[in-house]
Design brief:
The protein is of the alpha/beta class. The protein has 2 domains: 179 residues, Rossmann fold (3-Layer(aba) Sandwich), CATH 3.40.50; 60 residues, no CATH class. The protein is built from 9 helices and 9 strands. The strands form 2 sheets. Strands 1-3-2-4-5-8-9 form a 7-stranded mixed β-sheet, sandwiched between helices. Helix 1 links the parallel strand 2 and strand 3. Helix 2 crosses helix 3 and helix 4 runs antiparallel to helix 7. It is globular, with a radius of gyration of 18 Å.
Amino acid sequence: MIAVDLAYEEFGAKDAPPLLILHGFFASSRNWRSVAQQLAQHAHVYVLDMRNHGDSPHNPVMDYDVMAEDVLQFMQARQIVAAAILGHSMGGKIAMWFALNHPERVSQLIVVDIAPINYQHSFNNIINALRALPLATISHRKQAEILLADSIAELSYRQFLLQNLVLKDGHYSWRIDLAIFAQTAPNIAAFPDTTQIVPFMGSTLFIAGADSNFVNEKDLKYLFPKENLIVIEHAAHWVHVQQPAVFMAAVINFLQQK
């Protein structure tokens, strides 16, 4: 199991308590820049690009074991003994698995709209739609957005995915490796076997969107007995985007309870 050196963005005073932010599948650190800038008033914030995302290295292995090791290597390289960790979706699963395996490294845990379970949904349709885009003939991003409309109905989600489309020397290409994503997507929907794992006894906040169906409290307690679940109204999976003020208040309040 070989860790990679993760790209990252950094905000806040270096003598403030460390906070790591881990993004979701298809996302990157830039999606959390606004949140990080606000949290920088309370913490020294590192927003990581997970492997195969953003500016981090590509690697054909992508599962929660290796991604948790990436986080450990990141902390060791910066002599971060323990940190608060906030993760959304895939990043939330990385954060949970990291906390379960390295509890002494996690001062506080915040998990956004995801649970430590195997999900049945598939990413195949999304990945196939992105792979089918005729990049050689696309002259502007709006064109790509229109071509995706039949496969991915939600405009905001299309725009989110297309942040991975980059223009270089007059030609569009993917920042992400869609072949790796296709191969490893089942790992992302799953969660590692926890039958032999010791529960994480640290302070844990779960934040879920009321209009999302990803989190059921019965799936949380056995691994995170000190969990507190906050459900935010008028929000779905992208809680931090759909209800930013309520989300930020919940996170800051939790961090200040330390």
